[in-house]
Amino acid sequence: LATGPRQDSSVFYEFRTYDIKPSKMKEFLELVNKYFHFRTAHSELVGFWYTELGALNKVFHIWKYDNFAHRMAVRQALANDKDWQGKFISAALPLIEKQHNEVAYLVPWCQLGKPPKEGGVYEWVTFQMKPGGPALWGEAFRAAINAHINTGYTKLIGVFHTEYGLLNRVHVLWWNESPDHRAAGRHSAHEDARVVAAVRDSVRFLESQQNELLIPVQCSPLK
């Protein structure tokens, strides 16, 4: 953010969240596992999850694009892809209640990571910061993230700041071996003076925070 180099890459990430009808989640995930290869043939899927805690009946996926022209070309190609439209979209749309998307960049001081092994769970944490942007809260926020990394209980996958959607919003994606491993680590972090001090400084700029526990689906590159 403000404490790193300027945003000099055109690469961005689109976050897509779908609210699925409560009785249709199983059917929707079966469609994803069966037909989503038609979608990933067009652009890079970073990860695809369903929510387990913090929200219900939601799926969440992250797409990587080289630039906005790349995204537009992909969207046009998808509209003309008969397999994607006929086998997935036509069957999936009746199962979806609502769709939401955001566009975000990785913060300059973070590279997209990978978990050390498959089989864990992911935590998606959304921070709504006070107006003023990274110039106001970027340094304190980075210090809080680094304090959690230094405890070693969790693995950072990525930190993103929004470009389209609500501004002054930062999303952090973490990986843990299990929900219990995450809970134990959080308890330890709460007793770590370094974490407490860094978080106390950062929350001066925080308006709200939301956490969701995510489970990767079968086709997700991040598992």
UniProtKB/TrEMBL annotation:
Family matches, as SUPFAM superfamilies: Dimeric alpha+beta barrel
Listed GO biological process terms: mitophagy
GO cellular component: mitochondrion
InterPro entries xrefs: Dimeric_a/b-barrel, NIPSNAP, NipSnap_domain
Segments forming domain NIPSNAP: 13-111, 122-221
Domain of life: Eukaryota
Family to which the UniProt record says this protein belongs: Belongs to the NipSnap family.
Listed name of the protein: NPS3A protein
Source organism (scientific name): Tachuris rubrigastra
Name of encoding gene: Nipsnap3a
